[in-house]
């Protein structure tokens, strides 16, 4: 079973949308990936497509004094298409992406590690991945994932009946926290990679695999009874981490080097 399914027609629709964006906004798309449940590896047959991309303008766009894209229009660093029932497509300008690199943004890090790449300039992707590694803050990323896990746990998994699919939205960031505690590299986006490293076997893994099978073949996983093995595991892991954050480095990076990277990427990858 393909755990990262992409319908060929939807792939073509995403690629066509990216080409239209390049023409309409006079930009070049450097990379485009899947960022949602299809990228994580636990989508349902009716899950939508969350395509995310990084793009770059022509060099003069970055040099305008008043930052205008047109008469009276503020310069934006995000391009978003209207969301429909199946496609959610949006992207960040290269300068915005590099600003987020400097802040060790975990979302951007996940994009660059997505198992589903719609299209990409591999030289640009390699440069961005290297920058992400350099600026990676294990402590900041740990807090990002821990807060995500606790928020979803509090919102959906209390009581004897729970939002069953939300187990996965707590387990993924919780396992990301465990990854960060034992590995200096940013955690992977794919849920199966986290599972295979941190929960390779045992009753909790068996219960999660059973839940994944239901999620992947069902159009919707609604409320259901509490799954004891998973709930007890989550409760135990959150409780262990509720007192304080582990001792982790905060991360560091050279801002001047990031400026140099930006200028170099503009020279190599901006539209001519």
Descriptive report:
- By secondary structure, the protein is of the alpha+beta class.
- It has 2 domains: 8-136 and 252-269, Beta Polymerase, domain 2; 138-241.
- It has 11 helices and 9 strands.
- It has helices at residues 8-25, 37-40, 94-102, 106-111, 122-135, 138-156, 166-182, 191-198, 203-217, 228-241, 255-269, and strands at 27-34, 49-57, 68-70, 73-74, 78-80, 87-93, 117-120, 161-163, 223-225.
- A 5-stranded mixed beta sheet has the order 5-6-2-1-7, with helices on both faces. It has a two-stranded antiparallel sheet with strand order 3-4.
- A hairpin with a 6-residue loop joins strand 5 (78-80) and strand 6.
- The radius of gyration is 20 Å and the shape is globular.
The CATH top-level class label of the largest domain: Alpha Beta
Mean pLDDT, as a whole number? 92
Which segments are poorly predicted (pLDDT under 50) over 5 or more consecutive residues? none
Question: Largest beta sheet, briefly?
Answer: 5 strands, mixed
Q: Tally the structural domains.
A: 2
Strands ordered across the widest β-sheet: 5-6-2-1-7
What fraction strand?
15-25%
Rg on CA atoms, Å:
20 Å
Shape: globular
CATH architecture of the largest domain: 2-Layer Sandwich
């Amino acid at each position: 079973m393909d755990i990262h399914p992409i319908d060929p027609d939807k792939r073509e629709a995403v690629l066509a949308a990216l080409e239209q964006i390049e023409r309409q906004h006079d930009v070049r798309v450097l990379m485009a990936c899947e960022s949602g449940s299809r990228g994580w590896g636990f989508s349902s047959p009716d899950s939508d497509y969350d395509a995310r991309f990084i793009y770059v303008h022509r060099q003069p766009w970055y040099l305008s004094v008043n930052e205008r894209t047109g008469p009276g229009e503020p310069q934006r660093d995000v391009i978003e298409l209207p969301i429909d029932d199946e496609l959610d497509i949006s992207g960040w300008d290269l300068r915005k992406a590099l600003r987020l690199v400097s802040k060790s943004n975990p979302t951007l890090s996940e994009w660059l590690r997505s198992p589903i790449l719609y299209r990409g300039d591999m030289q640009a992707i390699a440069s961005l991945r290297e920058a992400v590694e350099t600026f990676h803050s294990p402590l900041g990323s740990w807090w990002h994932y821990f807060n995500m896990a606790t928020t979803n746990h509090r919102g959906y998994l209390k009581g004897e009946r729970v939002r069953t699919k939300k187990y996965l939205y707590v387990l993924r960031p919780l396992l990301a926290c465990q990854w960060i505690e034992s590995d200096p590299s940013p955690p992977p986006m794919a849920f199966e990679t986290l599972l295979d490293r941190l929960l390779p076997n045992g009753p909790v893994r068996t219960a999660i695999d059973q839940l994944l099978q239901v999620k992947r073949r069902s159009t919707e996983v609604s409320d259901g009874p509490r799954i004891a093995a998973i709930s007890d595991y989550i409760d135990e892991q959150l409780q262990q981490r509720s007192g304080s954050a582990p001792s982790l480095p905060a991360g560091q990076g050279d801002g001047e080097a990031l400026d140099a990277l930006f200028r170099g990427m503009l020279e190599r990858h901006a539209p001519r």
